[in-house]
Amino acid sequence: MDTNSFQLRHIGPSKKEQEKMLQTIKIDSLDQLINETVPDNIRLKNELDLAPAMSEYEYLAHIKELSEKNKVFKSYIGLGYHEAIVPSVIQRNILENPGWYTAYTPYQAEIAQGRLEALLNYQTMICDLTGMELANASLLDESTAAAEAMALLFDVRERAKKKVGANKFFVSDEILPQTLSLLQTRSTPIGIELVIGKHEDFDFADDFFGAILQYPGKYGQIFDYESFVAKANEKHIKVAVAADILSLVKLKAPGEFGASVVVGTTQRFGIPLGYGGPHAAFFATKEAYKRSIPGRIIGVTKDMNGKRALRMALQTREQHIKRERATSNICTAQVLLAVMAGMYAVFHGKSGIQFIADSVHDKTSTLANALSDLGIEQTNTSYFDTITIKTDAKKIKKIAEAHKINFNYIDDETLSISINETVNLKELNAIVAVFTEALNLNKVTISAISQGNNILENTQRNTSFLDNEIFNTYHSETDMMRYIKRLERKDLALNHSMISLGSCTMKLNAASEMLPLSNPQWGNIHPFVPLNQAEGYHEVLRKLEHQLNVVTGFAGTSLQPNSGAQGEFAGLMTIRAYHLSRNDGHRNICIIPASAHGTNPASAVMAGMKVIVTKAAENGNIDLNDLREKVILHADNLAALMVTYPSTHGVFESEIQEITKIIHDHGGQVYMDGANMNAQVGLTNPATIGADVCHLNLHKTFAIPHGGGGPGVGPICVAKQLVPFLPSNPVIATGGEQAITAISGAPWGSALACLISYGYITMLGSQGLTDATKMAILNANYIKERLEGHYPTLYTGEKGRAAHEMIIDCRGFKERGIEVVDIAKRLMDYGFHAPTVSFPVNGTMMIEPTESESIAELDRFCDAMISIRKEIVEATKDESNNLLKNAPHTLEMLTNDDWDFPYTRQQAAFPLSFVSDNKFWPSVRRVDDAYGDRNLICSCIPIEEYM
């Protein structure tokens, strides 16, 4: 065994196990299986042109060497990003803990109660600080959240506003520049007109439906917005406020002065800068808008025993239900980062957060006073953590950078300085020394921090926050460590067993890929530092872009989109820009197969396109005749086809090149959804099948962990003609010569997480990547064969093979009173997370084992499924008191003196021998979704108030 080979560690089955699996599926070789699965006409003829694979030891030395090319200055740039202290207890026990970072989105609530509680804490924190009634479980970044706020306010316009066609949205000129760029991106395709100006000059005209304000302003000035919001509400103009989370400890909550939506980022609550992300944005609003809120909400409900339980609330808002009627394509959250931010508040508590906010303000005031004493003009009349200075900015910049300090340079005569929780007296004196040296003034020394009082009385907070017990209990490290562990034990993650979710690709997130994330040389870089301070980052990002170009066969890549859904939107926006550049702006028809992910039609509508749905043939493939008919009908206005490949049904459609040719022949471009890229890498690619742009889920195929439902990275790779339109950033230049405006707030999106995918590709190399794809296909076909005769496989390729995933049909079990959800819950008793349920076909399960699972784990899963199939035979439609309907079974049930079930405790909890060796106990019985939606509670309150 070559102990230097990362491939041998990443891929689950050994060579000997592979031979056994090939015998099981009755085939002679792995290459024969691939030949029977992937159509020959789209197979790559050459290996991927990538550098030789590194060993883990070589890679860790390499990535450390690259990190040292970054220059970690003290950055006081602000603009929505601040250096933060990550409490060690949170870093070690959450960020670096696979029990937290390898969990999946909490669709199966009974085995996700830990992270659901952590997210409920987060929502409570956000509601408390913003003064709003309802908060979601986080969004992608502040700028995206602001754009979502605009879309929500447009959606909930009063009837009178809709009648007069009110489509104007006022944007304060104090808004962060990256947020303005994203508002421009999102507004234009859906017919919203942005009007930018000073809020003091706004005329509240009838053709405005909404407005957004920055609080404090982008350079630190605190404005009293109370009269503005009152006047706006009077005129039925709803106001969103983009607020700094820490400032809300000292500033009047926007909910207090009538805001309809409050957004921002929780990055400064213990999340590394990471050159722009990943970070968790917040979104809070009124309960009246609960049906329009983007993303996810965690709500309180009860289980079958009436016990308090948590789950994702109002799930009908998800895009797979609303599709082209959705007002947002957001289908995820930044769960891992939201969990960390919420835990920051739990660990520090109300008094600790108050201390941090007071300390930041005091240090800012002390600095302002010291500079004022030197005769340097500070222009903010009311501020929290940021001061604006009138001075010779060019002179200051030269000296500051020589002292490894970054300020925000507004123009040649103005700069701003934002103070954060990491700043101490020594660093305040270093800032002052820059000014005295640059301006040739007498040296002065600040001897002590003085108490600050630079917030106008009418904008000061006078309401309480974080009073719940959860924020006033776990302040010692011992208590906090145990609390985190208690929640972790309630969650099933990849460190316990396989999570075979079709379309979600839950593979190994290797420790060597994750370790660099804890290195401050990567973590403490502000996204707007000069490029020469981030040379290590740029070498990684350039190499990753090249690697992804090679894998996809395309000419260019943008790493900016920070989720798969944002990648979809970005890809469609580049297509839109391409058509506009050719005077084909009328092309607005987007054709989407009926089986597509629900985010596809939502993204198309957001990009200003009209969705036309094509039928699926009986074999699950795109109905070619229906497609051709609709393309010809809409040829003059055809913009794009959105296609997933292999298909959402887990099949390589042999007609894919004919499909893409039909689109090209009629003037359209082809967007390929990269959700199933794990079946393509090294064998075929989007360019070969005829696509023009694809997004890639780096949190699927390229090993970024799902983190309980986020972080994610969804870069787009594009053909040569679309390269000029790749997205830009208003602060740091990115993108093509005719770049569209921003897709994410940071220039390279969630840059820190990109290190993981860079490590994955670099350690696997060309052969490892290709072998991983082959093994993903072998593992899926092995499961298919083992389940043969127990569960029918719904779709297969022309030669009877599955791709990297397969769909089993459970609809026939209804005659025994068993639904697919019953199988999903019963799998918990066997120690497994269910595969994807009822997507893309209702009443089915989509199973994707990935390449990382060994034959032993695959067999355990198959044995569990076969055992459940035998249990189904024993069920009857007339008797619901059975193993499946009562699943999952909790420890409380098994140890109760009463046992009113027609089966044994052993059958319930230990149905197969392997279960007892590694038993996972769901912490609640099956949750009541309907009760939770009827009695919507999305924050921490005393238990008596909802039961």
Structure characteristics:
947 residues, alpha/beta, seven-stranded mixed β-sheet, 25 strands, 12% strand, globular, disordered C terminus
N→C terminal distance: 58 Å
Sheet-strand content, in percent, reads 5-15%
Largest sheet: 7 strands, mixed
Overall average pLDDT: 95
SS summary, helix count: 31
Strand order of the largest sheet: 2-8-7-6-5-3-4
Number of strands: 25
Shape: globular
Unreliable segments of 5+ consecutive residues: 943-947
The helix/strand class is alpha/beta
Work out the radius of gyration. Answer: 28 Å
- Percent of residues in helices: 25-40%
Layout of secondary structure:
Elements: H1 6-10, H2 15-24, H3 30-37, H4 56-67, E1 74-75, H5 88-95, H6 98-101, H7 113-130, E2 134-135, H8 142-155, H9 159-163, E3 168-172, H10 177-187, E4 193-197, E5 208-215, H11 226-234, E6 238-243, E7 261-265, E8 281-285, E9 297-302, E10 308-313, H12 319-322, H13 335-373, E11 377-378, E12 386-390, H14 393-402, E13 405-406, E14 408-411, E15 414-418, H15 425-438, H16 477-488, H17 511-514, H18 520-523, H19 535-552, E16 556-558, H20 564-581, E17 589-593, H21 599-606, E18 610-614, H22 624-633, E19 638-644, H23 656-665, E20 669-674, H24 686-689, E21 693-696, E22 716-718, H25 751-787, E23 806-809, H26 820-829, E24 836-837, E25 844-847, H27 855-874, H28 891-894, H29 905-909, H30 913-917, H31 929-934
Parallel strand pairs: 1-13, 3-4, 3-5, 5-6, 6-7, 17-18, 17-19, 19-20, 20-21
Antiparallel strand pairs: 2-8, 7-8, 9-10, 11-12, 12-15, 14-15, 16-22, 21-22, 23-25, 24-25
